Amino acid sequence: MNMIARHWEAVRQALAADREREAGRSEMEETTFLPAAMEIVERPVSPTARMTTWVLLGGLLVTILWLSLGKVDVVASASGKIIPASNIQLVQPAEQGVVRRILVEDGQIVKKGQPLIVLDPTVSTAEATQAEKALETARLDAARGHAVLSALDGHGLHFVSPQKLPDDVTQMQIALARAQISQIEATIAAKVADTGAARAALAEAEVQAAKLKETLPLLDEQIAANEEMLAKGYVSKLRVIEMRRQRLASGRDRDAALQTARRARAQIEAAASTRDQARAEARANVLTDLNKAEAEAKLRAEELAKATLRSSLQVLRSPVDGTVSQLAVHTVGGVVEAAKPIMIVVPRGGRLVAEVRVFNRDAGGIRAGQPAAIKLEAYPFTRYGTVAGRIATISSDAVEDEHLGLVYVVYVDVTANAQDLQKRGIHISPGMAVTADIGTGRRSIMSYLLSPVQAMAHDAAREP
C-alpha cells in the first residue's frame, strides 16, 4: 500500500508541475518573434497529439469492453435432406419375377393398395392350384374316414362333405366308404364263419360223448351178466372177451368225443377273440388313416396359404397414399430381382422434416426444442431466405457415415407457415438437399477470438 501511495503521489506532483509549466508558457503569438531556440522552448504543446492519444486510449477501452461484454451466436451447420416424417416407402418384389404390366409412371399420385406393377403369376398360380387340389383330396379322405368310423361304431354311414361338391363326387366318396366297410365286414364275417364251424363240431362231440356215456353202463351190466353165465357155462369165454373189447372201445370213443368238445370250445373262444381283434384292428386302421388324412389336410392348408400369399405378391401395391418416384422398371418382360427396390412412394400430406448429420464436436450443444434455420439448396437463402425449424430429436448414439465419419442424426421439424412459404415461392418436397444452422449457444467475442490462443497454450503446456 505504501508503494502504491508513493507512486500515486509522484504522478500527482508531476501533473501539477506540468500544469504550472503550461501556465507559465507564452501564447502562440508571443513566441513568434522569439529566436528560434527560444521559440521551440516557449511554444505551447499542440493539443492535437494529446487529444489523439486520449481518443486512441478511449477507443481501445471501448473495444476491450465490447469484446468482453459483446456476445455472438454459436451456430452448428449440418447438411442433409428433406424427408417425410413417416419415411419414404420402398416398393420391392418378394422374389425374382418377370414384369407383365407396368401400371404407373414417375410423379403419378396413387392410393394405398393400388396396383403398381404386375409380375408373371404362372408359377405361383400353378402352385396354388396344386395345393388347393391336394387340400381338397385330403379333406375328402378325412370326411370318408369319419363316415366309416361312424358306421363301425354302429351309428350308420353319414358322409359330411367338407365343402360344396358336385353330386357325382359326393356319391363316389360314399361308394368308396361303403366298399371299405364291406371289406371290413367280410373279414369279420370270415371270422364268424370259423366260429360257426367250431360250434357245430362242439355240438356233435357233445352228442357223441353223451351217447357213449349212456352206453357204457349198459355194456358194464352186459359184461357182468355174461361173466355170471360164463361161470355157469352158458356162454363162451370168447363172447365175454368180445364184450369187454367193445366196452374199452366205447370208453375210448367217449374220451375222444370229450377231447373233440374241448378242442371245439377252444376254437370257439379263439375265433371270438380273433373276430374282436379283427374288428379292433379294422377300427384302428380307420383311425390311423383318418389321422393321416387330417394331418395331410392341415399341411396342405398351410401350403395353400403360402401359395396364395405368393400369388398375391405377384401384384405390387402401394403401401400408402402418395406419389410414385424413382421408377426403375420400364420394360415389360424384364426381370426384377428379389428385395431390390424398383420404385419409392413418397407419402402424401405427411409432415416433412429435415434429416441432417451433425459432427461430434457440435452435438454436445444440441437439444430437442432448439430453433434452427433451414437453408434449401434449391432456393438460395440470399434470395429466398431461410425456413424456420425446430429440433425434434437427436440420435442417442453416433452412426458411421462413409464420408463424414461418426456423426449424430438430427431431425428438424419444418415449423414455417405454409402460406408464408407459398408467398415466398418456396415449395418443399422430399429429397431436397438442405443445410441446417442450429444455434448451440452464445459466447463473448473475446472468448471467440482467444479460443485458438487458449487451445495452442493448452497444447503447448504439455509435453508430447
Topology, please?
Layout: H1 2-24, H2 36-42, H3 47-69, E1 71-84, E2 89-91, E3 97-102, E4 109-110, E5 115-119, H4 122-152, H5 167-232, H6 237-312, E6 315-317, E7 322-325, E8 335-336, E9 343-347, E10 352-359, H7 360-363, E11 371-376, H8 381-384, E12 387-394, E13 399-401, E14 405-414, H9 418-423, E15 433-444, H10 445-460
Antiparallel strand pairs: 1-10, 1-15, 2-9, 3-5, 3-8, 4-7, 5-6, 7-9, 10-14, 11-12, 11-15, 12-14, 13-14
Helix pairs in contact: 4-5, 4-6, 5-6
Give structural notes.
There is one protein chain. This protein has 464 residues and is α+β, with helices and mostly antiparallel strands. It has four domains: 2-72, no CATH class; 74-85 and 351-460, Elongation Factor Tu (Ef-tu), domain 3, CATH 2.40.30.170; 89-119 and 314-336, OB fold (Dihydrolipoamide Acetyltransferase, E2P) (Beta Barrel); 124-312. The protein has ten helices and 15 strands. It has a six-stranded antiparallel barrel with strand order 1-10-14-12-11-15. The longest helix has 76 residues, at 237-312. The chain is elongated, with a radius of gyration of 59 Å. The two termini are 44 Å apart.
